Amino acid sequence: MTIKVSFQAPSKQKFLCLGVFEDNHFPESTQTWDKTLKGILKEAIQGSKFKGQYGQMLPITLEKGNKVVLIGLGKKEDQNEKQWQKIGSAVLTALESSPTGEGAVEIHSLKKAEDDQVAANMALGALLKSWRFEKYFTKKKPEELFSVKKLTILTPDPKAAEKVFKLLEAVAEGVFFTRTIVTEPANVINPETLAKAAESLKKDGVKVEVISQKDLKKMGANAILGVGQGSITDPRLVVMQWNGGSKGEAPLAIVGKGVTFDTGGISIKPANNMEEMKYDMAGAAVVMGLMKSLALRKAKVNVVGVTPLVENMPSGSAQRPGDVVKSLSGQTIEILNTDAEGRLILADALWYAQDRFKPKLMVDLATLTGAIVISLGTERAGLFATDDDLAKKLYRAGDDVGELLWRQPLDEVYDKDINSDIADVKNITSGRGAQAITAAKFLQRFTNQVPWAHLDIAGVTWAAKDLPLAAKGATAFGVRLLDRFILDNYEKK
Fold first, then answer.
1. CA distances in angstroms from 63 to 15, 68, 101, listed in the order given
2. Which end of the chain is less packed: N or C, by CB atoms within 10 Å?
3. Measured between alpha carbons, how far is 247 from 224 in angstroms, rounded to an integer?
């Protein structure tokens, strides 16, 4: 469930949120309301511990059941789009106490800030935080579910704010698409149904192809087939194209790991927390959400999304440790651990993307290693890149939207750790060190010199607690980052 957001000029409201800077300085919009209310706001602050710090709230009950909630904006110099989005999220939290589930916010005339940008980004923050997955509840009472229905943004120029928000809302739709399919259980999302989810993007203008198991065999995509051979659901390779740029211009290629459930295969995982492996397809889901966002906002760029979809299961037909497969690239791979499966399916997908589409660059996303979580925790995703300029652009885009990256090394010295005694490459190292790096080095062997970056999103895909712009659960980390990366660097202006 998500809220409805609308924009209108300042007006009287039953439930109103207003902003206050740190040390209780009022922006112009709040000053105007305080004069109208004959100094009630300043009086209420004086009798409280409220200091205008970011995240603070002060509810004030007025006559006739009207209510004002003061929202801490933090320091004046900290105001930017990320902060406005977080303020929008705080407004949403305040609205949860509204008896009607509706309310308004008026925060504008901020120093060095465009009113339309402030309003639109507050709306985006509230919208992103409002997403909930309530599909399978059958006994919860309505008041126990998400209760906020509508947020009205009061701004001097509603039409200008709505124009800015329209593009941001398109990105939010891609985020929600990703969060939904990542949250669905593995008995609902498998390679077949996830491919159908991708096909739903056709209505938005995305060209979608689903390559079947039969055709994968003809192609020689044995790394994908090997991972999926233990499941009763056949693997697929989904190819999505958004052609909003110049005809014939080389596209950007975005590749996402799509393991709809990962038991580990014969190298089976421990039972504890294995249910979390339903989101091992988050990389693919991010690519699908990105393609939706690009289509909805009519992005002026050519982008191809490639997602290999498999289910990694143990069975009599499952791939074994010690097996050797010949990948789509022609390189042979020794499988030492069937739980290192994501890099196998990405190997074929990366090769397919560069060979068929001759892209300007490739970026892949994958919940690839637990090692990256040990290294970076849940605050940043790992960034590996063969091109410094590409790495800088991705890092900057992540910083701009608050989806943070941290670059990791790709030194050649790590390459020898994945040399096999009986094949071209093995899928894991012999030791425990540098596992996120050697996984990236494995992928690099299938990029064929195309500028390439790998985002290991294992630690940031699922939130164990509420985040500023996401409720507990699926985050869709990567959709907004890649959308900004493309918008700032590759779209026709």
1. 12, 11, 19
2. C
3. 31
Question: How far is it, in rounded angstroms, from Cα 31 to Cα 109?
Answer: 11
From 75, 82, 149, 269, the catalytic residue: 269
Task: Write out the H or E segment, with its range, that includes residue 162.
Answer: helix 158-183
Residue at token pair 């050797």: 324
Model confidence, pTM? 0.96
The 10s digit of each residue's pLDDT in 387-431 is 999 999 999 999 999 999 999 999 999 999 999 999 999 999 988
In the residue annotation, 51 being an active-site residue is answered as no
Per-residue tokens: 247: 């005809």
Beta pairing class for 302-312 and 236-243: antiparallel
Q: What is the pLDDT of residues 452-478, one digit of tens each?
A: 999 999 999 999 999 999 999 999 999
Question: Closest Cα to residue 186, out of 194, 196, 175, 198?
Answer: 194
Please identify which residue in the block is written with the tokens 């110099």. Answer: 77
Distance CA 190, CA 259 (A): 8
Q: Which residue has 């630690």 as its token pair?
A: 459
Three-state secondary structure call for residue 31: helix
Q: Which amino acid is at 125?
A: G
Task: Return the structure tokens found at 324.
Answer: 């050797």
- For 108, the token pair is 């504008």
Task: Catalytic residue, from 343, 426, 480, 484: name it.
Answer: 343
Active-site residue flag, 343: yes
